[in-house]
Amino acid sequence: MPGLENRFVVQRFLSFVTGLVECLCFAGAVFGWASLVFVLKTEGYFSSLCVNTTGVNGTQVLDCSGQDEQFSLIFTIASFMNNFLTLPNGFLFDRFGTTVTRLFGIFLYTMGAILVAFSSSAQSILLFPALSLLAVGGILFLMTNMQVGNLFGSHRSTIITLYNGAFDSSSALFLVIKLLHESGVSLRASFLFLSACGIIHVLRTFFLLPRTSIPYPLPDHYTYGITCGKSKILSSDQANGNTDNSVEGAPLNKEGPVKKEKSFCECLLSRFFVWHLLWLSVMQLRHYLFIGTLNPMLQRLTEGEPSLVSQYINAFAVTQLCGVLCAPWNGLIMDRNKGKPRAPGETEQEADLWASVLSLFLTALQCVLFSVCASTPYLPLQYLTFILQVLNRSFLYGGNAAFLSVAFPSCHFGKLYGLVMALSAVFSLLQYPCFALVREALGGDPLYVNVALTLLSLLAFIHPLSVYLHCRKHASQRAKNKASV
Questions:
Q1: Which of 58, 180, 187, 232 has most Cβ atoms within 10 angstroms of its Cβ?
Q2: For the CA atoms of 141, 146, 149, 155, what is the dihedral angle to 10 degrees?
Q3: Are 146 and 160 in contact (CB under 8 A)?
Q4: How far apart are CA 100 and CA 92, in angstroms?
């Protein structure tokens, strides 16, 4: 029916646009930590840990390394919680669906914003739970929005990577708060506004997202949102014989026999999952250590000049906005074979895996280049480091979600996405020992740690090589079968 189709097109468009805005403005704010730290230092958070020390010329120097360590610890815990709790949140999403998961995420995010709003230099300790709540709530926004890609068929991977890019770009939110703070808007006012935005998130949950989840492939006459159910329109469809696949929760297969999917344990023990976990973990550790130590690094390279530190912090935050522009490139790489004729006997999944090889390889290459630039103690080069960082980060997280969606059954996506993020979070805890090593044993010089992380990043190339060999093996097998016929 034209009326139903037009309503679905409008609803689908609104779901996509509002989801993009939600990811862009809220979801990954915690990764703009460097901008917020600048404000928190101005407000005197953890200032009691700064002590006067004697410099090389006998002059008194204010040593705030203890303050920097607390800020680094807050980010380490928040980034760990952001990833590790994705595992139970993935099970929550697969078991209870979109509405329950989002309401939980909205509650966490709102509480985190309120805690920051009512924190102060005397109550700096509130930042520990606040940033973790913002991180976990934000990743739930992303997790529940990525399914919107299922509404767009052949552009599915592009939408997923676009949302992940928006998640990366949302770290610029703390830059906006920093600029507002410099214009006279208090930290409390900014975070109270963020908490009030929870009302918008709730409305979107009920009107523009499904109660359970959006299936893939998309069934015929699929509807979702608060208006779906046994309406007159649906009854008309049923009268015309379209009784299947008309509302949420319908079977995913439109036609043909039901294919036996891999079990969750089979997916977990597969070579794809193991190498993908390594691929994500080593690169994520590099990014987390870079973000968590950006302020001390700039302090060292600028010799503590506040205006220069602020200039580079602003430049870093502005480049984060480009994440939403960079991520679709990865999606286009993943989707480049959609709609094209496949080789005889080649399945859609095999074609998608072939397309993912280039994406996985480019992501690993970008990380090595980014790490080399970050390891070079030359201040102007950091502008290039910022560009490579945001490009690689948008490819990393968008590619992570897109690969899991094509390599494994969709019924396990929430659990696998949660598990890979949780396990990579455990690996990312190494960032705090690395920071302590730089501060205590290396006298604040991170060169040797940066070189070690660059070498570690080379392990990421194992994953694209493994997928390439798998695809080539299947292609050879098909050629042999064809020749024997």
A1: 187
A2: 120
A3: yes
A4: 8
